[in-house]
Amino acid sequence: MRKEIVENHEPAAPPTQPVKKKQVRKNEVRSSNGFGYKIGLALIYLLLGVVAVFQIFPLVWLFLFSLKNNQEVFELSPFAIPTNPKWENYVNVWTEGNISQYFLNSVLYTASSVILTVILASMVTFAITRMKWRLSSLVLGLFMVGLMIPIHSTLIPLFSTFSSLGLIDHPLSLILTYTAFNLPITIMILFGFYQVLPREVEEAAIMDGASIHRIFFQVTLPMTAPVMATAAIINMIYNWNEFVFVNTFISSDNFKTLTVGIQNFIGQYMTDWGAIGATLMISIIPILLAFLFLSNRIVEGISAGSVKG
Amino acid sequence: MGKKAHTLLVAMLAVFMVVMAGCSSSNEATGDSGSNGEKTIKFMHLWPTGSAKQHNLITSDIIAEFEEENPGIKVETEVLENEQYKNKIKVLSSSNDLPDVGVTWAAGYLQPFVEGELFAPLDEVLNDGLQDSFVAGTTEAYAINDQTYGLPLELNIAPVYYNKAIFEEYGLEVPETYEEFQEIVKTLTDNGVAPIALGNKDRWTGSLWYMYFADRFGGPEVLTSAINREGTFEDPALVSAAEEIQKLVDNNAFNRGFNGLSNDEGKSEFMNGKAAMYMMGTWELPNYTTNEDVPQEFRDSIGFFKFPTVEGGKGDVDSFVGGPGVGLFVAENSDVQEESKAFVKFFVEKWGERAVTEAGVIPATKVDTASVDLPDMYIDILNELNNASNLTLFADVQMSATVAETHLNLIQSLFGKEVTPEDFAKQHEDALSRE
Amino acid sequence: MDKAMSNKGVIMLYIFPALFLLLALIYIPIVQTGYFGLMKWNGMGSKEFIGLTNYSRLVQDSLFWSSAYHSFLLALFSVLSLVGYLMISVVLAGKIKGADILRKIYLIPMLLASVAIAQLWMKIYHPTNGILNSMLMSIGIEEPPMWLADPNLALFAIFIPIIWQYAGFYILIYYAALKNIPESLIEAARIDGATAWDIAWKIKIPLIMNVIKVTIVLAVVGSLKYFDLIYIMTNGGPNGASEVMASYMYGHAFRGFDFGYASAIGFFLLVICLVITWIIRKATAVKEEIQY
Q: Complex ipTM, two decimals?
């Protein structure tokens, strides 16, 4: 299957050099007489714009939500601006409990498990798609099964595993669990890309006598930077918002994460929704920044890769 | 090649070690210092600083006091919100790793923990004279096979709160009988006001209404005896109660879409003055008395009445749905069981008075209304509690967990009119007899 | 070259760390879940071996099958939604102005925790003052639907936020995949006079077919074990109308104290996922042969 795809590329591969002139002409033709084309473009923009509004409004809503008290949360329309914005929700959230420690922990756990997951998954995918061994599809299958287990049926077994290892109430239990649970999906995402990734560069490197580790770290990893960024974003979001494992494995306040900050405001009889909104707003900022940064890497990585290719 | 592989492996191991070391060094700072003869009681509760500030504060004060009076004993707390708390307790009990002291619920919730021998009997603590300070009937809800496994901290009843301003506007009076209640519902719906606020996604909220009808039709024993299998759920009174619920639904007595609303959402209909009545446990009292976030005007306009009697029914007006809320347990396999029992006793003794004055919790221990300064509504409720002819524990707490799930789902169907009153009773009977 | 690429030591080194984590932290729970499924166990105290009783109960449990049906429906709609996400991605990855900023905006909801998304959609679906019903009432509909409270609508009403929640996820993957296509291929086609439509259909999509297949598996498996929003927004109700397999299992494990049965459901869920994934792989493999 793999081979077929590569072969499939090759006939389509273009004679690269003598084309520029032709292309320019084509473009001119299309843009000058394309009235319908312009309408179509306008429609596409309209559609994209509508979708964009839909996608950005949750953030606006959340911000307004974070400035309300319980009364206003239920009474006012979701997009009404409260007459007295409750900025104190933010103060409340910042001063209540151990939030800076939670914040630090969230960053630490998320960062270490994302790095660990992406590197380990890349190694596995590399070994499966690039190297020749008999059990490769079995191993791939094993990882795929890992996608299919619902987390709530793993809690009790995992707790007893970590308990016997003495890792309960230890940050490592979280980092390892996040890594293990995100490996399957990360491998799946990487797998789709590795299959279509041109092999010529790697093959050339082998011809030059480079070692496998060199090829992996210096050729393959840089080429897959865009998909690693993609996988990192997905991993990051999962880990950042995770709370079931945190609550189950961690009992010391010092090791808990930002999601605890949210639960802090959920009560048996009363829930402070405004404060939850403020916590959510605070916790979205770092992940939004990391996302924007990584998301630029998707494009940069590609151009870097294509120069090499 | 092989050499490089080894270098890589060594490098990865090194990183791993650094992470481990980093983590364990931060671990030392918090680890229990059991080495110098100090004993640590682990205490898990569900009052986070954010949503239950007063509870949390009182708890830390009591702990500080306890530690001072008992040198050499430290109490370490872990706090989780209600839902997460229940889940964690579940996971911990599966590996017999419960905290030394924790929070539990009564009756049906308690049963499997007792059967699994996870909770220690607390009778010796009670027999020390502590029993007398509890309101009669509260510790009994924590007793299984004549042994008490939890010390209750709260006692709640569910009256019907009503908005005096709305009642006044439409010339309505507090109902004494169910006919009058129906008249009120009719007047309100005719005027486009939602009579009753209800969020029935949470299901136990609707169960309160059903329980009152069961009590007023069949008397205080009928539901309890159906659950403990002395009676049957197909008792005519229990079927009539279900019919009455559907009549209320037909008359649009509840706010629109109640089956899809959480209790918080349903409650907001009452809190913003759109709905005239709301039935809920007395834990809501702070919202009508002391909670500064609720406008004073609203708080002043809220009163409560007892669920009216139905004509020809066996129940009387002083019978309430309610009972003890959370209580404290001590783990059977605790290394510090004696100390934990002492702590639980100490906690209960200190909790009562402060809980009612500072957190607005009606404790399961007796409150001397003469000596504490409380809002009028609290005094009234406490008086009602003293005069109560009966307290029927919340049905989903009385039942075992599996039956409770069936009951709650059936309640939602009953309110949604997806099940007939007869089927409602029959399916309860089936679930109960299967146990 | 072949020799270098089949060095057993290196393969071991690359596979082992990840495989170890997988076996230790995912396979041990899977095996234990299967084992608990053979027990009568309320999660505490002693277990009693009852063989396949839980599984035979499961096969006859109509509530389980209705929740399984809901999960299948979700999987179906999730897969259908991929078409839309793919189209958006193709447009975004094309060279249109503002694609970069649009792409970032599209992914924002993905960053939100489920709690936030659930709260937002509960506000949208609120029967009296929700955004949706306010709009419907303002255009003259007097009795707008009650969405989450209506047993006939609850399931579909809750599918919308679930599917929407993952928009960013799939757009992100497709976008990266499309950007991975060598520019030269597309230029060549353009020179040959292919329209943007042709390029999308005949070059871009076939080239990222592998990624699309992966996303189909992810969408199906993700839907079959989906839990979060259902749990927060409807709790499986009203009366089981929006119950899915994972929420049904959760109810038995953490509410009903029926851990043996819940484990059986969890294990069965895994088996269902395996079978369906196998079918998908078979089906897409056949297509491939026709294509090439």
A: 0.88
